[in-house]
Design brief:
Number of domains: 1
Strand order of the largest sheet: 1-10-9-6-7
CATH topology: Phosphatase 2c, domain 1
Radius of gyration: 18 Å
Number of strands: 10
CATH architecture: 4-Layer Sandwich
Order of helices and strands: EEEHHEEEEHHHEEHHHE
Oligomer: single chain
Strand content: 15-25%
CATH class: Alpha Beta
Number of helices: 8
CATH superfamily: PPM-type phosphatase domain
Helix content: 25-40%
Protein name: Integrase
Length: 273
């Protein structure tokens, strides 16, 4: 694959909780689940440390092992937990977590894994793009989102509603009937969406955190076809620039209701060669 990628934090003075890593035949993206300052997590390291540590572990695993992506993810979650279980409270419901997208090319196939709400888009030859996203978190969150959506974006009321939303969602994290993310329990890997497609059916791939995919799935300013064309012609940095432009045009969230007015945004685009 010929890969290009870009990542940008929501705010320049805050750590980027996304992780992106790639080799010529693999891509790994994680989007850390940010925790408001008024909520405890039980971890002294923080979300950025978690997503970057697990991401690096997964990239090494997907490069060095022929195991399934599910097996590699489970091993990565277990290994990362072991790096801080002696000094952090991993039983805390707010222990750091992250979405995961993994993509690996073998001789004639592409294997993929998606856990939680980051997005994988496959540009299939002679067909519409194949868009893969785990929607369980969004479906679970629908029952708690109204107070946050009703408040003016960025206001104290909005920030308080966001904290209440995240706290309510913790009760549904990594339990049957809820949603699944990478956190502490390696069994979460078994809940990931997985699949394999022949390489000769795919023109290109895009891997997006939800801060980058919002140009399409939140703002509706492009179709998936248009997003793929934008990535192909102008690259991931331009897609993120357009996301930022849209965010700045709606600072109170009146046009597009959302928990985060600005979000960490990461995009990778790979042409199959």
């Amino acid at each position: 694959m010929r890969l290009t990628l870009a990542t940008e934090p929501a705010y320049p003075d805050r750590p980027n909780e996304d992780f992106i890593g790639a080799t010529p035949d693999a891509v790994v993206l994680l989007d850390g689940a940010g925790t408001p300052a008024d909520l405890e997590s039980g971890c002294s390291h923080g979300v950025a440390w978690y997503s970057h540590t697990l991401g690096s572990t997964l990239l090494a695993g997907v490069t060095q092992s022929a195991d399934s992506l599910t097996t590699i993810l489970a091993a990565g979650i277990k290994a990362t937990a072991s790096m801080h279980d002696f000094c952090c409270d991993l039983s805390h419901p707010g222990s750091p977590s992250a979405t995961v997208v993994m993509l690996r090319r073998s001789a004639d196939t592409l294997d993929w894994l998606v856990l939680a709400d980051s997005v994988l888009v496959l540009d299939i030859l002679d067909a519409d793009p194949m868009v893969i996203c785990d929607e369980r978190e969004a479906l679970t969150g629908n029952r708690y989102r109204d107070p946050m959506n009703a408040a003016t974006g960025g206001s104290p009321e909005h920030l308080l509603a966001l904290s209440h939303y995240i706290e309510a969602m913790r009760a549904h994290r990594n339990v049957d009937g809820g949603f699944w993310v990478a956190a502490v329990d390696p069994l979460a890997a078994e809940q990931a969406l997985t699949g394999t497609v022949p390489v000769d059916r795919v023109r290109a791939v895009a891997v997006l955190s939800d801060g980058a995919s919002r140009l399409v799935d939140r703002f509706g300013l492009a179709t998936w076809r248009q997003a793929l064309d934008l990535l192909d012609h102008d690259g991931p940095a331009e897609l993120i620039r357009q996301v930022r432009e849209a965010e700045r045009s709606d600072l109170d969230g009146s046009r597009w209701t959302r928990g985060k007015i600005f979000d960490d945004a990461t995009a990778a685009y790979g042409r199959i060669t």
